[in-house]
Amino acid sequence: MTDIAMIRAAAARLEGHARRTPLLSSPFLDQIAGRRVLVKPECLQHTGSFKYRGGRAALSALVPAVRARGVIAYSSGNHAQGVARAAAEFGVPAVIVMPRDAPQLKIDNTMSLGAEVILYDRAGGENREAIGEAIMRDRGLTLVKPYDDPQVIAGQGTCGLEIAAQARARGVQAADVLVCCGGGGLSSGIALALEAEAPGLSVRPCEPEGFDDVARSLRSGRIETNDRQSDNVCDAILTPAPGALTFPVMRRLCGPGLVVSETEALRAMALAFQRLKLVAEPGGAVALAAALFRRDDIAGDTVICTISGGNVDAAMFRQALGRFGD
Amino acid sequence: MTDIAMIRAAAARLEGHARRTPLLSSPFLDQIAGRRVLVKPECLQHTGSFKYRGGRAALSALVPAVRARGVIAYSSGNHAQGVARAAAEFGVPAVIVMPRDAPQLKIDNTMSLGAEVILYDRAGGENREAIGEAIMRDRGLTLVKPYDDPQVIAGQGTCGLEIAAQARARGVQAADVLVCCGGGGLSSGIALALEAEAPGLSVRPCEPEGFDDVARSLRSGRIETNDRQSDNVCDAILTPAPGALTFPVMRRLCGPGLVVSETEALRAMALAFQRLKLVAEPGGAVALAAALFRRDDIAGDTVICTISGGNVDAAMFRQALGRFGD
């Protein structure tokens, strides 16, 4: 399983490839939150989300002869693009199995990044694993899972190393670190990095209402699942349950989960636009929403939050600004 | 007049205050431009534009006893906010004289940053200098001009020091550096910094059609003026003519100006949204527009461009995305 040595090794392999994203702030956001808000904008990472870190970490950890045969991933969105870009950088094939009803922009981007995209019919009952496994076996591809993979968690953990250093540079000794959470790859990776490098900082996973499997799992002490699988604007972080690898880490290291509504996520998007000049996608804005609108559930005079991605289409963004932008 | 020593001194005074903005890129933008595009997003600077650099540089250069009496600025937008924030940081008064018809958001922001805002009636013929000079004399305030001030130019030049270092780190020896240009404070400041630190990089001022006073002045060798003063979406960079201090620098150091249409600026805004996850205002997007849509007027395999600001209201942003976001 991932440990701090693996995260540091991933950081060394990502050096000169992943962006070191800045830590931003606005006095206007501080006022709403009632404390200092420091924002880690992973929407500025390559491919528009933190997923590039994990993708590059996983591919760079493969033995060259294995990597040369190529990789495969199942994803409708950000993980697809992160793996596709990392594969392109290594000049190796990437096969991404995507649902036919994924946003056209995400399909187009993944193909433009050089991946071979195989579409399957989610509604028609096609089984993506069956499709993927046949191709994987035939071509000798390596599967890159979206979160339950030690090297992927290590890659996401490099974001935590940066947060630890950036907090230290600002004199922040203790703070909640709010992390947008789907399967828990980013939350568990950051938590492991902070445990070693900034033990006063504590991860709080943030989720949308109705998809609070991690918050409930942290309360009950065992893996809980969501009833629904879709129908929420926060599409990037709608996972059925915390991962088998990520949950034990989160259980050991994370504080209680925070849950926000779709409306709050959209309001946070509009505020990121107005006050930070950043484009956040709804799922990437839930941690900022929690920082701004769950102030009584957070401790301390400073809160750190991730904006985990910005891959939102123009129509959705216009809608958020139309409702909450003035 | 400003020289490299003043710019370096300004950088030392801004250390720990101004943000070192990153240098971003996207393979999708490279494809449109036909070369590598490196973007310097000053929309991520404090107050949402590069103007904070000049404001902080000017205030930090004042003798403390003079600074303590306060400063005054005339501005309807980004300079107002940059000076207001710098004054608040020093705990000294700022008076900003703004037209009553300035965007309400910019008036509100300037007041929220702690400045005293005095509104005047532009249409009714009130003279802002007359209003400002009386207050300045009564209170002993120091005027901070938006561009024709050696310390303001030095502050904007700190952006050029960063560009020089970031280009060097990427192995870029020669490139055009496209800069959004109003009165020429940012263009001349960057040009002076690059002359000393990266002589292979050459500034190209970028302007909107109908407000190409700098491009025409560079061609004729003397200060030319614009016929119109307003009525263009690029409100942040609509100045009547290049400055008396900035023009000689631009004439000596800059390559030919580049001119883009309003439509091209709005298209560049939509592409910054989609490909960089950044919010650019129209005037802040003209250099990116030139990089993308004036490829035959640019030399070399790499182009660097500023996004100089992101203070655009939600209605205008929605309109740009509605027209060009898909």
Question: Can you put this structure into words, describing what you see?
Answer:
The structure is a homodimer of 326-residue chains. Chain A has 14 helices and nine strands. By secondary structure, chain A is α/β, with parallel strands linked by helices. Chain A folds into two domains: 4-50 and 149-324, Rossmann fold (3-Layer(aba) Sandwich), CATH 3.40.50; 52-143, Rossmann fold, CATH 3.40.50. In chain A, strands 1-9-6-7-8 form a five-stranded parallel β-sheet, with helices on both faces. The first copy, chain A, has a four-stranded parallel β-sheet with strand order 4-3-2-5, sandwiched between helices. In chain A, α1 (4-14) crosses α3, α3 (51-61) crosses α5 (78-90) and α5 packs parallel to α6 (104-112). Chain A is globular and about 55 Å long. Chain A starts with a helix and ends with a helix. Chain A binds chain B through residues 19-22, 24, 27-28, 41, 43-44, 48, 109, 112-113, 270, 273-274, 276-280, 310, 313-315, 317-318, 321-322, 325-326, and chain B through 19-22, 24, 27-28, 41, 43-44, 48, 109, 112-113, 270, 273-274, 276-280, 310, 313-315, 317-318, 321-322, 325-326.
Largest interface: A-B, 32 and 32 residues
Low-confidence stretches of chain A: none
Strand order of the largest sheet of chain A: 1-9-6-7-8
The assigned structural class of chain A equals alpha/beta
User: The CATH topology of the largest domain in chain A, please?
Assistant: Rossmann fold
Q: Count of helical segments of chain A?
A: 14
Largest sheet of chain A: 5 strands, parallel
Q: How many structurally independent domains of chain A?
A: 2
Strand content of chain A: 5-15%
Q: What letter string, H or E per element, gives the SSE order of chain A?
A: HHEHHEHEHEHEHEHEHHEHHEH
